TrEMBL record:
Residues 59-77 have a biased composition (Basic and acidic residues). Pfam families: VAPB_antitox. It comes from the Archaea. It comes from Natronococcus pandeyae. Keywords: Toxin-antitoxin system. This is Antitoxin. Residues 59-83 are annotated as: Disordered.
Length: 83
């Protein structure tokens, strides 16, 4: 393990339980903290698309949502019409 330094930290019981729930099998708490701390936030993605690209994505999502709703309406109508 080399010259690993260790630090003590204080956590509230709630924070400890939340961290414990995120801990994966075979993972130390240090491993868990390193994994979580390395996760990217959605805010890190802000500004990576040009306005036109973002608008196109929004439109594609809206269209897919509309198709999904239409498909769900058809299935519901079909189920309602069955004896």
């Amino acid at each position: 393990m080399g010259n690993t330094e260790y630090r003590n930290i204080r956590l509230t019981e709630d924070a400890y339980q939340r961290l414990k729930r995120r801990k994966q099998p075979g993972e130390s708490f240090s491993d868990t903290v390193e994994r979580i701390a390395g996760e990217r936030s959605l805010l890190d993605l802000a500004g990576i698309l040009a306005d036109e690209e973002a608008d196109a994505m929004r439109e594609a999502i809206r269209e897919q949502d509309e198709r999904s709703r239409d498909r769900l309406d058809r299935v519901t109508d079909q189920l309602d019409s069955e004896p």
